[in-house]
Amino acid sequence: MTETSETTRYTVAVIGGTGPQGKGLGYRFARHGHDIVLGSRAAEKAEVVATEVNDRLADVAGAGTARGLANADAVAAADVVLLAVPYDGHDELVASLPLAGKTVISCVNPLAFDKRGAHGKVINNGEGSAAESAAELQPEATVVGAFHNVAAPALWSEDEFLDEDVIVVGDSVEGKQVAIDLAASVTGRPGVDGGKLRLARVLEPFTAVLISINRKYKTHSGIRVTGLDAH
Amino acid sequence: MTETSETTRYTVAVIGGTGPQGKGLGYRFARHGHDIVLGSRAAEKAEVVATEVNDRLADVAGAGTARGLANADAVAAADVVLLAVPYDGHDELVASLPLAGKTVISCVNPLAFDKRGAHGKVINNGEGSAAESAAELQPEATVVGAFHNVAAPALWSEDEFLDEDVIVVGDSVEGKQVAIDLAASVTGRPGVDGGKLRLARVLEPFTAVLISINRKYKTHSGIRVTGLDAH
Questions:
Q1: Which CATH superfamily includes the segment(s) B2-217?
Q2: pLDDT band of A1, cuts 50, 70, 90
Q3: How far, in Å, CA of A148 to CA of A166, rounded?
Q4: CB contact under 8 A, B164 and A125
Q5: What residue spans define the domains of chain B?
Q6: Contact between residue A182 and residue A207 where contact means Cβ atoms under 8 Å apart
Q7: CB within 8 A of A222, min separation 6: which ones?
Q8: Do A127 and B126 touch (CB under 8 A)?
């Protein structure tokens, strides 16, 4: 992480910004100086949550600002877009947004649940992921995957940072750097470059493992990458 | 982990016991008091590696013993079998072994490599894994998945324990407990119950993410599960 990237202040549109993951990540970004534009189907709903975030950050020195807009307007107001939407309806929504030219970070987890617990939905016969679908639907966007495995309740907590790592995958070095920078708002250290976009096929369903662990051990688990002391 | 399971001394047959993963895990198990039977196609080759392990453990108080046998004989000599074989030829080998009634731990990673790096092989159109294949081929064995993500060079090092967690998946609580116990030989703490066997679909290709991280950061990375301080 260079000094330049450490001090970059981003404006991030959070699509799905009123859901727990989007609201929680947006709060973390804004808490550490980035500006966020929460997007929702209804601008009014996004404005309510933006006010909630701003109220929470009123006493935090150096915090960024939150505002709420309808999804497409939120995208238009930012260069970086976080997709934090449910997988149901994901493809239609992503296709409908003006994402050309944007850096798009997908934290979408295509999961299914049955009596045996959580597991990954099979996409494109095992050769796809939500992040890859977004990249195919929006060929002029730079799509990366990140923030799949952070638990929403921990994001909305008062803890300064979460004790875990954010793994970032993508086919664009510049795109990954944005997510690597933003990860520091969540974990206190840069995100970990985990390789190419197709490895989102692993990061997305890994959340099912964490959900299983959470159920068994009554906790909010995360993952930390060991062996990286020097980075 | 109960006091009973903490003190259980297992005899573990390691199929693929002359490869780096099998040899390294066998060494760890024996170093912490379990007996190992390294299996190979040729018994002589397994004996050579067993001698190497025994020599290394000569000064370790409480260490178990290592011996080498042909694969099928190694299986016959143990109640617990670690499958540490390459994915190429995996199904044929597993089908050929006398695994009925055994607890079988698969650490097999079906990976492919191309110019974009490592990635997971697609098994059964995304609805399979090496561990599930083993369970289907050996319906009278108790198959669990574990030890997928530990790096072979770290296993064969002099470090007392590896700074990472072993995640265990399986459909049998008793079968998982064996791997959870054995994990303590590697990491210094019990393995983490990660849910049902089908989640091996995630743990196996996760190794591709770690390989990507290793290449980028010039390290031997592992994963640690956070949020489990109490367990």
A1: NAD(P)-binding Rossmann-like Domain (3.40.50.720)
A2: very low
A3: 8
A4: no
A5: 2-217
A6: no
A7: A149, A150, A151, A154, A162, A163, A164, A165, A210, B225, B226, B227
A8: yes
Best B212, B220, B229 member to test A by mutation, with max A CBs in 10 Å, is B212
| Whole-Å CA distances, A53 to A49, A101, B231 | 6, 28, 34
Maximal CA-CA distance, chain B: 49
Whether B70 contacts B42, CB under 8 Å? yes
Rounded-to-integer distance, Cα B212 and Cα A16, Å: 30
Phi-psi region of B192 (alpha: psi -120 to 50; beta: other; left: phi over 0): beta
**Quick one: tokens of A122?**
């099979």
| CA distance linking residue B202 with residue A203, whole number of Å | 8
d(CA B205, CA B118): 9
3-state DSSP helix/strand/coil percent for chain A, to nearest 5?
40, 20, 40
Which single residue is written with the structure tokens 């369970």? B135
Q: Do B222 and A227 touch (CB under 8 A)?
A: yes
pLDDT digits (tens, 9 = 90+) for A134-186: 999 999 999 999 999 998 889 999 899 999 999 999 999 999 999 999 999 99
Rounded to an integer, what distance in angstroms lies between the CA atom of residue B199 and that of residue B195?
A: 7
Helix B200-217 crosses helix B130-137 at what angle (to 10 degrees)?
A: 140
For chain B, say whether A123 makes contact (Cβ under 8 Å). Answer: yes
Please tell me the pTM assigned to this model: 0.95
Instruction: Using the CB atoms, write b or e for A187-214: b if 16+ within 10 Å.
Output: beebbbbbbbbbbbbbbbbbbbbbbbbb
- Burial of B76 per CB tally in 10 Å (0-12, 13-18, 19+): middle
Is the CB of residue A26 less than 8 Å from the CB of residue A14? yes
